[in-house]
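Lecture 7 notes: from sequence to structure.
We start with the chain below.
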Amino acid sequence: MRILTVRQPWAWAIIHGGKDVENRVRNIAGGYRGPVAIHVAQQVDLTAFSGQSAALTAAATAFNESNTDVLKSGPWHADRGAIIGVVDLVDVHPAEHCWRKPWKSENPGHCSDWAEPDVHHLVLASPRALAEPIPYRGALGLRTLDVETVARIEAAIA
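Predicted structure tokens for the same chain:
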């Protein structure tokens, strides 16, 4: 199993809000496909709360969150520095491939509402939340997890 550190609110959106694409400037996965633990970074992506993000608005709606002060009241303010769930990494492609293929029938032409242009899309599926977050130290990149942590995650999947 691999682990990926993601800033809030995006980590929450991956596990709970239907975010099925993680945008990265390069293909950090290489040829890896399989389970990825989602670790919440210590820092929050403050640009996500600028009111410009339709995707974040969709995630907030999915959570029935109507308060605009999401930094203090949103479900994504907690769990920093912890693993909160697992997803399956099923594909990675550059954005230009995405816009030429009908990845989703309800939105033909691009793979996800969460996809951004000019980056690589890590396509995620089957999010599974942990019953309790597992404290863990984050780092950059897509890293391999140790056996003990994998066992703790597998035992904690809700």
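Points to note: The beta strands are 2-8, 21-24, 34-44, 82-94, 120-135, 142-144. The radius of gyration is 15 Å.
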